[in-house]
Amino acid sequence: MPKLVDHASYRKQLLAQCLDLFAERGYSALTMRQISEALDVSTGTLYHYFPTKEALFQQLAEEITQQTVFEALAQAPSDSSFEDRLMSLLHFLEEHEEAFQKQFLITSDYFQHRDLYGENARAILRAGVERYDQCIQSYLRVRDAHLCTLLRYLINGLVMRRLVNDTNLSFIEEARPFLEIFVQAAGNTMGETEEYAGSPKEAEQLEER
Question: How far is CA 13 from CA 75, 80, 125, 167, in A?
């Protein structure tokens, strides 16, 4: 009897491996044949799930951001102070720091070789950024979207700093100097809890997970 394959699960496995591969070698430097060899699958199998390298990149970017948003919101404190929610978010980032570093490397590769990524790559990355901004806003329950974008800038800067510099400090310890500043800035913008503000399609995908 033929072995049944969970295609959705297998596709996710391939994408997870591609995250590591692209972070290490660079999306722009790889062909579909090289990707299939690195993943130890046939080119036919790879093309079955991803008709083009651009399609693979798009699905990878969407999978990463949607899964990260889902996991982050799933562990967001339901009844806590703003400071507690901020610390909870930082703990989540600390737990997933390696994955965020890989995303940073892939994004950096895009800006170095954007002409090799295809015309839709910028829109794909922008959509991912918007998901993260919406996630931060929903997680922290603040109405000022610009303030949440500022926090994302700080997070990205810290991820980059820790990637290029050796340090014995934890992610939380390095982030502490920003906490008091951010808490003060958020003091006059606090609002009631808001639901995740993604698109209807994204909301359906999150509910299905």
Answer: 23, 35, 21, 32
pLDDT reported for residue 36: 95
The residue ranges of every structural domain in the chain are 53-208
**Phi, then psi, of 103 in degrees rounded to 5:** -65, -40
What does the alpha-carbon distance between residue 122 and residue 136 come to, in Å, rounded to a whole number?
Answer: 21
Q: In this structure, are residues 38 and 21 in contact, taking their beta carbons and an 8 Å threshold?
A: yes
Q: Quick one: how far is CA 163 from the chain centroid?
A: 16
Nearest to 124 by CA among 178, 62, 81: 62
- 198 neighbors 139 (Cβ within 8 angstroms): no
The three-state secondary structure class of 76 is coil
| pLDDT by 10-residue block (mean), the chain, 209 residues | 67 92 90 95 94 91 91 87 88 93 90 83 89 91 86 90 88 85 70 40 42
Closest C-alpha among 130, 106, 64, 132 to residue 114: 106
Query: What pLDDT, on the 0 to 100 scale, is given for residue 3?
Result: 53
Give domain 53-208's CATH number out of 1.10.287, 3.40.50, 1.10.357, 3.90.320. 1.10.357
What pLDDT shows up at residue 198?
43
